[in-house]
Amino acid sequence: MNVRRRSSAAALAAIAVIGAAAAPAVAADPSPSSSPSASAPSGLYGTTDPQYDGVWRQSLALLAQDTAGVIPSSTAVKWLTDQQCANGAFAPFRADPAAACDAKTPVDTNNTAAAVQALWAVGGHGDVIEKALGWLKSVQNKDGGWGYSPGTPSDANSTSVVIGALTATETNPEDVEKGGKSPYDALLTFALPCAKDKGAGAFAFQPDKDGKLLPNADATAAGVLGALGKGLVTEAGEKSTAASCADAAVPAREHAAANAAAYLTAALAEDGHLVSALGGSADQPDYGNTADAVVALAAQGGADQAAEPLAWLEKNAAKWAAESGPAAYAQLIFAAHATGTDPRDFGGTDLVAKLNATGPAPQGAAAKDTASTNADEKSDEKKDDDSPFGVWWFVGVCLVFGIGIGFLLSNRNKKQQP
Questions:
Q1: Which of 65, 157, 231, 247 fits a disulfide with 164 by CB distance 3.0 to 4.6 angstroms?
Q2: How far apart, in whole angstroms, are the C-alpha atoms of residue 411 and residue 398?
Q3: 122 and 77 in contact (C-beta within 8 Å)?
Q4: pLDDT below 70 — which residues of the chain?
Q5: Whole-Å CA distances, 9 to 20, 69, 121, 139, 303
Q6: How many whole angstroms separate alpha carbon 123 and alpha carbon 27?
Q7: What is the pLDDT of residue 190?
């Protein structure tokens, strides 16, 4: 494979963060909102403890900046490359990158695949990418897919984010086989048939203990992108009318993606957004998965198919992003990009400036822009001190990592939804 940077006219032309430029897209998930760490590692975006999501949120931040035509800070990029283990894998966070990784280092496929996509986008790190891809291939399961951790059963989210890393680097997933099975073969085993009374067309995260497939909106959004061979960043696909789930003799990838999009459309119809509940609490809006659904719907059937949830995000997501951090801003930028929405005027919020203010200033960014946005961030944090939502978000992330589910972290909140 020839590891080189994909062409990006916007990224090459942009030398500053300021300016209104329309941006013409797993998983994945925002960084948890928690108490700021005493001293955030130099170069890292966000101030919360990076133990569970450092590499994920850094990867999404760099990828979102590139998507918006921003040249990231070299310090931020170096922070990410320094996190790689000698075998090519990435863990969520290594406090001492100089110390060698060992059997206890919690490397995983999700952080590694996200780092690959980010570093390919910013360019200039072919050796790092080659090693990461080599490690991902070495831990591929016999069914063709990937689990969150090496040796764990394949799941739809992990398989999809690795597919995104492969296609982003111009590697054909169909050529990456284990036991005669490709990643697409594994992914399609998680697709629910249309005959299901509930969850028709959705993707399951993975079979439950009884071998049953349960619909999962988060896995479904990831599965759409995976089935289409798309990464975290994608543009709108060809316009199509919303369709109902329809079985086919052969569950082709594109057919599975269309069925999954139909499921997401139905799930979004009532409120215009997805919902989640943790620990028996009342349903709450799921901003991160709604953003992922926007990207998936736009990729599968054009921007119009994602219009309603996009409008809801533009109206309601600013506070969530301020509480949740850089990966949340990145998810919204991906949603804006996939639908041709300007990320610098997303419901009145400049997502790019807000993201840039959470870490090292990008190359060429104007100091006054960063300073003024930092002031806005501090004001937002002060106003949101009493909000309980960040606590629920953080609890969800902790639960997710407790059972070994990574995607989604972005910030990554990988929650199974009935």
A1: 231
A2: 11
A3: yes
A4: 1-40, 196, 242-243, 249-251, 277-280, 364-418
A5: 16, 8, 12, 35, 22
A6: 21
A7: 97
Query: Could you tell me the two tokens for 401?
Result: 């990592």
Contact 412, 288 (CB under 8 A): no
* Half-sphere exposure of residue 244: CA atoms within 13 angstroms, side-chain side: 3
* C-alpha span between 402 and 112 (Å, rounded): 19
User: Is 287 in contact with 329 (CB distance < 8 Å)?
Assistant: no
The separation between CA 70 and the C-alpha centre of its own chain, rounded to angstroms, equals 19
What's 149's DSSP letter?
A: S
- Write phi, then psi, for 191 (nearest 5 degrees): -85, 125
Amino acid in position 281: S
Report the chain's C-alpha Rg in angstroms. Answer: 19
The pTM of this model reads 0.79
Identify any residues that bridge with 108 across adjacent strands, giving them in sequence order. Answer: 90
Token pair belonging to 61:
């931040």
Q: How far, rounded to the nearest angstrom, does the alpha carbon of residue 344 sit from its chain's CA centroid? A: 20
Write down the pLDDT at residue 76: 97
Q: 147: alpha, beta or left, given left = phi > 0 and alpha = psi -120 to 50?
A: beta
- CA-to-CA dists, residue 226 to 26, 82, 347, angstroms: 8, 28, 29
* For the chain, the helix, strand and coil percentages under 3-state DSSP, each to the nearest 5: 45, 5, 50
Residue at 199: amino acid letter: G
Q: What is the 3-state secondary structure (H, E, C) of 316-359?
A: HHHHHHHHHCHHHHHHHHHHHHHHCCCHHHECCECHHHHHHCCC
- Report pLDDT for 231: 97
Q: How far is CA 333 from CA 20, 32, 350, in A?
A: 14, 18, 10
Identity of residue 395: V
Q: Report residue 213: phi and psi, to 5°.
A: -100, 120
Give the separation between CA 144 and CA 187, rounded to whole angstroms. Answer: 8
* Three-state DSSP class for residue 412: coil
Give residue 31's identity as a one-letter amino acid code. S
Q: What's residue 277's pLDDT? A: 65
**Taking a C-beta distance cutoff of 8 angstroms, is the pair 343, 23 a contact?**
yes
Concatenate the DSSP letters of all residues of 254-294 into one string: HHHHHHHHHHHHHHHHTTSS-EE--TTPPPEE-HHHHHHHH
The token pair at 133 is 């891809």
**Closest-CA residue to 141 (of 129, 132, 150):** 150
